[in-house]
Write a structure and sequence with these properties.
The chain is mainly alpha-helical. It has two domains: 163 residues; 49 residues. Helices cover 80% and strands 0% of the residues. It has seven helices and no strands.
């Protein structure tokens, strides 16, 4: 396994076009989700789909680009939730970076991991939001904020997270990202197999050399006895 952060890739013209359209549709999805969240059609059960979108993109893109996209997602949430500008950007950005880093090195990009990362990111952001906006200021009846607003929104976000998983997967597969990832994984797997075969051959040679030395010692010992 090779751990990497922001691998340098030589993009062809076709790949650059695909990258452009991929990020164009990611950004378009972000704007549409912000519009849906701002209309207030869901009431107290408002799903914050931007969390799931940020994680879905992060699990498929590089660490740097995922962090930048996470910052913009945070800005949209700041405007939507009418909080201090940059607050959610600070919350989401490290989560996007970690999700991208782990997805490229340790875990698979699948529905379960996407749901887990979305839940952790949403819970982490809501906890900081509740802490800095209600607990520190000792707001009266602040427990109602959890049961009536944050908890229903958290549940709604998890229930609608699959939509963002399939949306980001569709965009990534449509514009060639998953094909490139599969090719990279195939190359890495071939290199790992070659290294393992080389190590096995080296170990076998060491064992053969030890056997030959022992055999020579035994032969010399037999000659001396004779």
């Amino acid at each position: 396994m090779r751990y990497k952060i922001n691998p340098n890739v030589a993009y062809t013209r076709k790949m650059k076009i695909k990258v452009f359209f991929r990020w164009f549709f990611y950004s378009l999805s972000l704007v549409l989700l912000y519009s849906i969240m701002s209309c207030g059609a869901f009431g107290l059960w408002q799903p914050y789909l931007i969390f799931a979108l940020a994680i879905g993109v992060s699990m498929r893109e590089t660490e740097f680009s995922s962090s930048i996209f996470g910052i913009f997602c945070g800005f949209m949430l700041d405007i939507s939730m009418d909080t201090l500008f940059g607050f959610f950007a600070v919350c989401i950005m490290p989560c996007c970076f970690i999700a991208s880093l782990l997805s490229h090195n340790l875990i698979k990009v699948n529905f379960l991991n996407h749901l887990i990362f979305t839940g952790v990111t949403t819970l982490f952001s809501f906890s900081l939001y509740y802490l800095f906006n209600y607990v520190i200021w000792n707001t009266e009846r602040r427990g109602i904020i959890i049961t009536s607003i944050l908890l229903p929104s958290f549940i709604a976000t998890l229930l609608t997270a699959p939509l963002m998983f399939f949306l980001t997967r569709f965009i990534a597969s449509k514009f060639g990202l998953e094909e490139n990832e599969q090719l990279d994984e195939a190359v890495e797997e071939a290199v790992d197999k070659a290294e393992e075969k080389r190590r096995s051959k080296k170990i076998l040679n060491i064992k053969n050399n030890k056997y030959i030395k022992e055999l020579d010692k035994e032969t010399k010992r037999n000659k001396n006895d004779n």
